[in-house]
Amino acid sequence: xxxxxxxxxxxxxxxxxxxxxxxxxxxxxxxxxxxxxxxxxxxxxxxxxxxxxxxxxxxxxxxxxxxxxxxxxxxxxxxxxxxxxxxxxxxxxxxxxxxxxxxxxxxxxxxxxxxxxxxxxxxxxxxxxxxxxxxxxxxxxxxxxxxxxxxxxxxxxxxxxxxxxxxxxxxxxxxxxxxxxxxxxxxxxxxxxxxxxxxxxxxxxxxxxxxxxxxxxxxxxxxxxxxxxxxxxxxxxxxxxxxxxxxxxxxxxxxxxxxxxxxxxxxxxxxxxxxxxxxxxxxxxxxxxxxxxxxxxxxxxxxxxxxxxxxxxxxxxxxxxxxxxxxxxxxxxxxxxxxxxxxxxxxxxxxxxxxxxxxxxxxxxxxxxxxxxxxxxxxxxxxxxxxxxxxxxxxxxxxxxxxxxxxxxxxxxxxxxxxxxxxxxxxxxxxxxxxxxxxxxxxxxxxxxxxxxxxxxxxxxxxxxxxxxxxxxxxxxxxxxx
Length: 482
Fold this sequence. Notes:
The protein is α/β, with parallel strands linked by helices. It has helices at 22-33, 41-45, 48-57, 71-82, 95-105, 123-133, 147-152, 163-172, 186-193, 206-210, 217-244, 246-250, 267-288, 290-308, 316-336, 342-369, 385-408, 410-415, 422-441, 449-455, 457-475; strands spanning 9-11, 87-94, 110-114, 138-141, 155-159, 175-179. 60% of the residues lie in helices and 6% in strands. α11 (217-244) runs parallel beside α14, α13 packs antiparallel against α14 and α16 runs antiparallel to α17.
């Protein structure tokens, strides 16, 4: 490759230098800040590809300092630049995005991009390259659309190119460098779908447990279908939420590693999988009952409202999160056709408010340790911890008080063989919630307390002990007073 090592190196942007799609990211940012722009998309599409990109670019832009880059390729470009090689960025992306990337990286001698009605893709890009650097150049690309350029180049750099396309390029020109595509493993998709978060949907089983109807096969089957419906719906909303929060997630010490934020998964694939999961969810919900389908629809509306609006407002977001948890219990009641007691709703509201505040405090503690003063995309500051701590602990204690009053209620005394056993559950609640808050203050809490509780041995044993005490108190008459 010595005869091409001094030729200009022309690099594509989307899919090559960065694994993401700058147009889609700009569109997401535009819709996030101006939702009504969605109505104008058909008109902009009528202007052609270049006109559409121009319309998006003038209204929404990407943060070139935050988008992911192909680290091996970028390292090679820096190496070549240091020895004096000319580096050119040539992309079908709009010139505003390309210029932003160029300014951030500081390694490009020239930038060729879509502008003034000229969509720089395929043969149009080839013409622009030849006019700028001549016939002798090396081209770095990622897909079949780059074949016309590779055929005219003196050598090629392949970045995540499909095997069939790579074979075609090898027959045409020498390969200067090759960076194989990192396949999207099942583990990555499971992270994107947040399958571990499905544990939250076990709340749908609470009405089945509190009515001790788990021996009823029909109700058990209904609640299992309801669980799957909520889980697929939740996964769809998680994907959409991650795409909605790309910019703020990349500024977060842990969330920046999420599959879409780091570029491990393509945005279009995410939208497709989210659509499939949503349709599957609605189909499953309709098999449970019409009422449950309405409950699922309510959950989807509220969680979307949370993701798009409420999550940016201090305290309102945690109140909405506690409501979304409580809705799961209500949905479980609808699925099996039983009424939800006011005791359970009051207890749930306080308990889930405390857990939501654990989540926010854990994030703020992590930011404090990283030397950051405020969250990005949410109206929270590290200084808010002095208010959030007592509010969260107070909500937990309110939940315990409600549970204590529930034990003394006439209905409870009549339904349980030994209602006094429930006081052991109350003690367990005090210990478990206090443990979560202590772990949060030490900076040991996961972003999500439910995920942490699953991994924490002490939490698992405490929850199992509380369930055992409740079941014992319901079914067995114990002589507690000699």
